[in-house]
Amino acid sequence: MSMIDTVRSEMVAAMKNKDKERKESLSMLLAALKNKAIDKREDLTEAEEYEVVKKEMKQTKETLDLAPADRTDIIEQCKARLAVLSEFAPEEMSEEAIRAAIQEVVDALGIDKPTGKDKGRIMKELMPKVKGKADGALVNKLVGETLA
Questions:
Q1: Which of the residues 34, 38, 53, 105 has the least number of beta carbons within 10 Å of its own beta carbon?
Q2: 100-123 as b/e, with b when 16 or more CB fall inside 10 Å?
């Protein structure tokens, strides 16, 4: 069952339960997924579906960060939307798993004592392995700690 079908069935359930906030969040996610599929002109892969969900979450977080403190309606709406979107987001890798992946790449490249000059080579090999599963900023930070 594709994510589009899952989101659609969840949206129908939300409509039956008269949960307007959840229905609106699911509707926006469904529209984003359909638009991506239309642009691609074929069905989305699982990775592409997760990419759409992460993009929607990122946009909602930005809206939340930019909302004035006195606009509690916007803040509450964004928090509710993030809660719904997180149900469909991929499982994030833990710091330990990211560190293990970094060590695996360092070993595979045959680097005994990694230095700052090796960061580009490490990141080039590492990012395809963790793309979509880990936050890029966190990966960059952990690679920097490994090199220090």
A1: 38
A2: ebbeebbeeeeeeebeeebeeebe
